[in-house]
Protein backbone atom coordinates (compact mmCIF):
# COMPACT_ATOMS: atom_id res chain seq x y z
CA UNK A 1 0.00 0.00 0.00
CA UNK A 2 2.67 2.50 1.08
CA UNK A 3 6.29 2.06 0.05
CA UNK A 4 9.10 4.46 0.93
CA UNK A 5 12.35 3.76 -0.90
CA UNK A 6 15.81 5.24 -0.29
CA UNK A 7 14.27 8.37 1.26
CA UNK A 8 16.49 11.32 2.14
CA UNK A 9 14.99 14.39 3.85
CA UNK A 10 16.45 17.37 5.61
CA UNK A 11 16.23 21.03 6.55
CA UNK A 12 18.39 23.27 4.41
CA UNK A 13 21.89 21.79 4.33
CA UNK A 14 21.18 19.44 7.23
CA UNK A 15 20.14 15.88 6.32
CA UNK A 16 17.87 14.23 8.90
CA UNK A 17 16.57 11.11 7.11
CA UNK A 18 19.15 9.01 5.28
CA UNK A 19 18.37 6.21 2.84
CA UNK A 20 15.21 5.01 4.62
CA UNK A 21 13.24 2.20 3.00
CA UNK A 22 10.04 0.89 4.57
CA UNK A 23 6.56 -0.28 3.69
CA UNK A 24 3.07 -0.52 5.16
CA UNK A 25 0.82 -3.34 3.97
CA UNK A 26 -2.99 -3.03 3.70
CA UNK A 27 -4.78 -3.64 7.00
CA UNK A 28 -1.55 -3.75 9.02
CA UNK A 29 -0.23 -1.57 11.86
CA UNK A 30 3.39 -0.57 11.32
CA UNK A 31 5.30 1.36 13.98
CA UNK A 32 8.23 3.76 13.79
CA UNK A 33 10.23 3.80 17.00
CA UNK A 34 13.30 5.68 18.20
CA UNK A 35 14.46 8.36 20.61
CA UNK A 36 13.33 11.96 20.33
CA UNK A 37 15.09 13.82 17.54
CA UNK A 38 16.10 10.83 15.41
CA UNK A 39 13.88 11.80 12.46
CA UNK A 40 10.56 10.00 12.94
CA UNK A 41 8.37 13.09 12.57
CA UNK A 42 10.55 14.36 9.72
CA UNK A 43 9.91 11.12 7.84
CA UNK A 44 6.16 11.34 8.48
CA UNK A 45 6.07 14.96 7.27
CA UNK A 46 7.88 13.90 4.09
CA UNK A 47 5.30 11.17 3.50
CA UNK A 48 2.54 13.76 3.91
CA UNK A 49 4.30 16.24 1.60
CA UNK A 50 4.86 18.85 4.30
CA UNK A 51 8.60 18.45 3.76
CA UNK A 52 10.20 17.75 0.40
CA UNK A 53 12.54 14.82 0.01
CA UNK A 54 15.87 15.34 -1.72
CA UNK A 55 16.17 11.70 -2.77
CA UNK A 56 14.06 8.58 -2.93
CA UNK A 57 10.45 7.81 -3.75
CA UNK A 58 7.05 7.38 -2.09
CA UNK A 59 4.54 5.03 -3.66
CA UNK A 60 0.98 4.76 -2.43
CA UNK A 61 -1.43 2.28 -4.00
CA UNK A 62 0.94 2.00 -7.00
CA UNK A 63 0.94 5.78 -7.54
CA UNK A 64 4.06 7.91 -7.12
CA UNK A 65 3.43 10.50 -4.41
CA UNK A 66 6.79 12.18 -3.76
CA UNK A 67 5.98 15.07 -6.12
CA UNK A 68 2.31 15.46 -5.10
CA UNK A 69 1.11 18.34 -2.92
CA UNK A 70 -0.09 17.64 0.65
CA UNK A 71 -3.77 18.18 -0.18
CA UNK A 72 -3.60 15.68 -3.03
CA UNK A 73 -2.03 13.13 -0.70
CA UNK A 74 -4.89 13.66 1.75
CA UNK A 75 -7.44 13.24 -1.03
CA UNK A 76 -5.75 10.00 -2.10
CA UNK A 77 -7.00 8.37 1.10
CA UNK A 78 -4.39 9.23 3.73
CA UNK A 79 -5.50 10.48 7.15
CA UNK A 80 -3.01 12.25 9.41
CA UNK A 81 -2.93 12.96 13.14
CA UNK A 82 0.15 15.17 13.63
CA UNK A 83 2.33 15.37 16.69
CA UNK A 84 0.87 18.10 18.91
CA UNK A 85 -2.62 17.48 17.46
CA UNK A 86 -2.88 20.87 15.68
CA UNK A 87 -6.61 21.21 16.14
CA UNK A 88 -8.28 24.54 15.28
CA UNK A 89 -8.65 26.22 18.66
CA UNK A 90 -11.24 28.81 17.60
CA UNK A 91 -13.48 26.31 15.81
CA UNK A 92 -16.00 24.15 17.63
CA UNK A 93 -15.44 20.45 18.09
CA UNK A 94 -18.04 19.76 15.41
CA UNK A 95 -16.38 22.20 13.00
CA UNK A 96 -12.99 20.61 13.62
CA UNK A 97 -14.32 17.17 12.72
CA UNK A 98 -16.11 18.67 9.71
CA UNK A 99 -12.74 19.94 8.45
CA UNK A 100 -11.71 16.32 8.02
CA UNK A 101 -14.14 16.08 5.12
CA UNK A 102 -11.82 18.36 3.11
CA UNK A 103 -9.64 15.32 2.66
CA UNK A 104 -12.30 13.32 0.82
CA UNK A 105 -12.70 12.97 -2.94
CA UNK A 106 -15.41 13.68 -3.89
CA UNK A 107 -16.03 15.80 -0.80
CA UNK A 108 -18.46 14.11 1.58
CA UNK A 109 -21.46 16.09 2.78
CA UNK A 110 -21.84 14.40 6.15
CA UNK A 111 -19.48 13.24 8.86
CA UNK A 112 -19.37 9.41 8.89
CA UNK A 113 -20.92 8.16 12.15
CA UNK A 114 -17.90 5.94 12.86
CA UNK A 115 -15.64 8.99 13.15
CA UNK A 116 -17.60 10.13 16.20
CA UNK A 117 -18.73 6.80 17.61
CA UNK A 118 -15.14 5.79 18.35
CA UNK A 119 -14.86 8.77 20.73
CA UNK A 120 -18.42 9.23 22.07
CA UNK A 121 -17.37 11.86 24.64
CA UNK A 122 -16.90 14.31 21.77
CA UNK A 123 -20.65 14.42 21.19
CA UNK A 124 -21.04 16.23 24.50
CA UNK A 125 -18.58 18.91 23.35
CA UNK A 126 -19.82 19.61 19.83
CA UNK A 127 -20.52 23.29 20.58
CA UNK A 128 -17.35 23.83 22.62
CA UNK A 129 -14.28 25.40 21.03
CA UNK A 130 -11.44 23.00 20.36
CA UNK A 131 -9.01 25.19 22.27
CA UNK A 132 -11.05 24.75 25.45
CA UNK A 133 -10.59 20.98 25.55
CA UNK A 134 -7.99 19.16 27.63
CA UNK A 135 -4.93 17.73 25.90
CA UNK A 136 -6.40 14.24 25.88
CA UNK A 137 -9.71 15.45 24.50
CA UNK A 138 -7.89 17.39 21.79
CA UNK A 139 -6.06 14.21 20.82
CA UNK A 140 -9.37 12.38 20.51
CA UNK A 141 -10.67 15.27 18.40
CA UNK A 142 -7.64 15.17 16.09
CA UNK A 143 -8.14 11.40 15.72
CA UNK A 144 -11.84 11.83 14.92
CA UNK A 145 -11.04 14.56 12.38
CA UNK A 146 -8.67 12.18 10.57
CA UNK A 147 -11.25 9.37 10.64
CA UNK A 148 -13.89 11.65 9.10
CA UNK A 149 -12.24 11.17 5.70
CA UNK A 150 -12.53 7.37 6.08
CA UNK A 151 -8.84 6.93 5.18
CA UNK A 152 -7.30 3.79 3.77
CA UNK A 153 -4.01 4.73 5.43
CA UNK A 154 -3.95 6.45 8.82
CA UNK A 155 -0.73 8.08 10.04
CA UNK A 156 -0.51 8.71 13.80
CA UNK A 157 2.43 10.71 15.12
CA UNK A 158 2.91 10.14 18.87
CA UNK A 159 -0.83 9.81 19.65
CA UNK A 160 -0.20 8.93 23.33
CA UNK A 161 2.33 11.69 24.06
CA UNK A 162 1.39 13.61 27.22
CA UNK A 163 -2.03 11.94 27.45
CA UNK A 164 -3.64 10.62 30.61
CA UNK A 165 -3.72 6.80 30.94
CA UNK A 166 -7.50 6.48 30.49
CA UNK A 167 -7.39 8.17 27.08
CA UNK A 168 -4.28 6.19 26.10
CA UNK A 169 -6.38 3.08 26.70
CA UNK A 170 -9.18 4.53 24.55
CA UNK A 171 -6.75 5.23 21.70
CA UNK A 172 -5.26 1.77 22.06
CA UNK A 173 -8.71 0.21 21.73
CA UNK A 174 -9.59 2.36 18.70
CA UNK A 175 -6.40 1.23 16.94
CA UNK A 176 -7.24 -2.39 17.74
CA UNK A 177 -10.79 -1.94 16.43
CA UNK A 178 -9.52 -0.40 13.18
CA UNK A 179 -7.01 -3.22 12.80
CA UNK A 180 -9.69 -5.87 13.23
CA UNK A 181 -11.70 -4.37 10.36
CA UNK A 182 -8.78 -5.09 7.96
CA UNK A 183 -9.62 -2.15 5.67
CA UNK A 184 -7.32 0.58 7.04
CA UNK A 185 -3.54 0.46 7.34
CA UNK A 186 -1.88 2.41 10.16
CA UNK A 187 1.58 3.95 10.36
CA UNK A 188 2.19 4.69 14.03
CA UNK A 189 4.99 6.76 15.58
CA UNK A 190 5.32 5.68 19.20
CA UNK A 191 7.95 5.29 21.93
CA UNK A 192 6.12 3.04 24.38
CA UNK A 193 7.25 -0.51 23.67
CA UNK A 194 4.36 -1.92 25.70
CA UNK A 195 1.84 0.07 23.65
CA UNK A 196 3.48 -0.94 20.36
CA UNK A 197 3.46 -4.64 21.23
CA UNK A 198 -0.25 -4.42 22.00
CA UNK A 199 -1.27 -3.02 18.60
CA UNK A 200 1.47 -3.30 15.95
CA UNK A 201 2.30 -6.00 13.42
CA UNK A 202 5.68 -4.71 12.30
CA UNK A 203 8.29 -2.30 13.69
CA UNK A 204 11.00 -0.10 12.22
CA UNK A 205 13.52 1.39 14.65
CA UNK A 206 15.25 4.61 13.59
CA UNK A 207 18.56 5.91 14.92
CA UNK A 208 20.22 9.08 13.57
CA UNK A 209 17.85 9.14 10.61
CA UNK A 210 18.51 5.56 9.52
CA UNK A 211 16.61 2.31 10.02
CA UNK A 212 18.78 0.23 12.34
CA UNK A 213 16.35 -2.59 13.17
CA UNK A 214 13.08 -3.94 11.83
CA UNK A 215 10.89 -6.99 12.10
CA UNK A 216 7.59 -8.57 13.10
CA UNK A 217 6.38 -7.74 16.59
CA UNK A 218 6.05 -11.46 17.29
CA UNK A 219 9.84 -11.90 17.04
CA UNK A 220 10.81 -8.49 18.39
CA UNK A 221 13.95 -8.38 20.54
CA UNK A 222 12.78 -6.19 23.42
CA UNK A 223 16.27 -5.51 24.72
CA UNK A 224 17.53 -4.47 21.31
CA UNK A 225 14.64 -2.04 20.86
CA UNK A 226 15.05 -0.63 24.37
CA UNK A 227 18.70 0.06 23.57
CA UNK A 228 17.57 2.47 20.86
CA UNK A 229 14.92 4.09 23.03
CA UNK A 230 16.84 4.84 26.22
CA UNK A 231 18.56 8.23 26.29
UniProtKB/TrEMBL annotation:
The family line of this record is:
Belongs to the ABC transporter superfamily.
* Record's keyword annotation contains Hydrolase: no
A Pfam cross-reference name: ABC_tran
Please name the CDD domains in this protein's record.
Answer: ABC_TM1139_LivF_branched
Protein source organism: Marinicrinis sediminis
Does this entry carry the keyword Nucleus?
A: no
Q: Mind listing the GO molecular function terms for this protein?
A: ATP binding
Please state every residue range assigned to the domain named ABC transporter.
2-231
Q: Note the InterPro entries from the entry.
A: AAA+_ATPase, ABC_transporter-like_ATP-bd, ABC_transptr_urea_ATP-bd_UrtE, BCAA_Transport_ATP-bd_LivF, P-loop_NTPase
* Designated name of the protein: Urea ABC transporter ATP-binding subunit UrtE
| SMART domains tied to this protein | AAA
Q: Which UniProt keyword terms apply here? A: Amino-acid transport, ATP-binding, Nucleotide-binding, Transport
